[in-house]
Amino acid sequence: MLVIVYFDVFYKDLINKLEAANIPHKMLHYTQITKNLKPSALIITGSKKRIMNEPLIPELNSLINNTAGPVIGICYGFQYLARLTQGLIIEGTEAFRGIKTGHYYNHYDKVVKLQKPWIILENQDNFISVAYQPDKKWIGYQFHPEKKQSDFEKYIVSLI
Fold it and tell me: What is the CATH classification number for the domain harbouring 102?
């Protein structure tokens, strides 16, 4: 089953779209992760949190590694995956919000460098906006694909 790990308020659009598409899923707040959970796919949502101010979460790290299929990181979720694999994230001083290149962005911090075997698929204004880690089937989006139906279908539904 698809598991959604959320941190705070950045999950409602995603849940609405999953339910409208009749995609079964289980919601888990990051404090509710259990050790024996083995999802078929995992989405780590965005958050108001600042990645550089937060410790990595051992239970989430285990869940990521126990996921059989794709692991999708959205905004903060992508930054989490990047940090877990020693990527470089820089702290922004002001929010980057709005639509650029057709995607909706809402973040401060930015992924600017990833270690191999990550493959960078798209860059935007000196940061990485889409990257794929083929060995683990991880994909990260610095934008919010759940905000636009066309992005949701292309970047979420097609992978799960």
Answer: 3.40.50.880
What's the rounded Cα separation, in Å, for the pair 105 and 93?
A: 15
Give the Cα separation of 155 and 145 in Å (integer).
Answer: 6
Taking alpha carbons only, the member of 96, 92, 115, 116 closest to residue 106 is 96
How many domains, the chain?
Answer: 1
Cα dihedral sign, 59-21-156-77: negative
Interstrand relation of 138-141 and 71-74 (parallel, antiparallel or unpaired): parallel
Which DSSP helix (H) or strand (E) runs through 133? strand 127-133
Distance between CA atoms of 111 and 132, rounded to whole angstroms?
Answer: 13
Count of beta carbons in the 10 Å neighbourhood of residue 134: 10
- pLDDT tens sequence across 43-59: 998 887 878 878 899 99
Residues of the chain predicted below pLDDT 70:
10, 92-108, 148-152, 154-155, 157
Structural domain containing residue 86: 2-157
